[in-house]
Structure formats: structure tokens, C-alpha cells
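In full, the data:

***
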Amino acid sequence: MPGNHELWCREPLSGRPGGARGAHRYSQLVELCRAHGVTTPEDPYPLFRGQGGPARIIPTFALYDYSFRPRDVARDQVIAWAWEHGVRARDEALLDPHPFPTRDAWCRARVELTEQRLGALPDEPGVVRVLVNHWPLRDDLVRIPAVPRYRPWCGTRRTQRWHTRFSIDVVVSGHLHVRATDWRDGTRFEEVSLGYARQWRRDADIETYLRPVLRDEPAPRGGRGGPEWKRWR
């Protein structure tokens, strides 16, 4: 599933008409993935039967709506609030919400659509549910001390309770470039970003950066724990 970078409108997708924006660009990415046999958030959720399964894999595209901000910062002030610390997301210039009037509205539509699909999932005893989303589902998992005021571009409070509401066992996200494992309400949250190339160790192989998502790991007492950092060493 695409993140914000894939939706930036700097150049047309290879082999596609130029000028695609917003939801149209997202649709082009979906078509491109399908042409290569890649499951997208618009497809039926596949059942994985390999090691650690069976598991229902749930790719999602929920976007963000600037609600990951302090309660005392109004929506119309959030960009200025971030800029007070010199923080300005490139999304403000490169991520076009067309045909929605705002990214907030696009996010709301994506959340509502996804909630309908999640709510329609049948009970499958013995099947693990793994939800995958580019942005973290919860704002208490956003820990970016180098740029703390980047939070508004990191998700939506609308997804805060998805893990309990839809009985999700594992949530996988990226976006933050701060790898960690956390537990909330008995659900395991995995931030799995590989980061930028400049953050990689030259002497490390890929096993340094990978960890199994479908692993037999009991929840900590009380169902809450972490962060267990997966740092680059």
C-alpha cells in the first residue's frame, strides 16, 4: 500500500499519463500493483497459510487528517504550530487531495470505507488478523524526538481503537523510521520502517533489519508493553 511519498505529484508514473493527482494517482498505483500481482488495499484480504499462519492479511490506506496534534492546537493553526519549530512537511506542496477538498476529507472517506470492510469480516476462529497501514494507527506510538512537531502528518485519531474494535492481533506500520515493537490491549504493534539508505549499516545484512511478524509471543501482563526498540547498530 502506498504511503505519502508514492502519492507525491512530481512526475507521472512510468508508462502512465502525466498529471494524475490525489485519488486518481492512488488508483493508478493500485492498477500498477495489480498488474504485477501485488495485493492492494482495494482487493479482497488474502489468507496467508505459511509459517505462523493461518493469518488474514489486511492492507489498508487510511491517510492522515492532522488530528495527531496537541488538544490545544486548532486545526487551522497546526501548520503554523509546526513551522514555529521549522517543521514543514513536503506533503503540503506535493500531496494533492483531488477530488477531495482537503486531505482531511480524503482521510475521512478512506477511514469510513475501510471500517465498512473491516466490519464485514467474518469470524475465523484460529486465524490471526494482521492489519498493515503505512501510517501508525495510534498517536501514542508516534515517537520522533528529532522532529516532534511532525506528528500532525503521522495518522488520524479515527483509527485509534481499530485494534480492539475489529479484533486485530498484529498491526504493522512504517512512516516514522523508528523501528519498535509495542503492545496495546493485547495487540502487538510493529513499526518496521527500513529508513533511508544513509541510516543503514554498511556491514549489516538484511537479517539485521527483518523480524518475523507472525511469531509466537505472548502479550505482556496487562496487555500493554514497549517500546522494544529495533535500533540500527
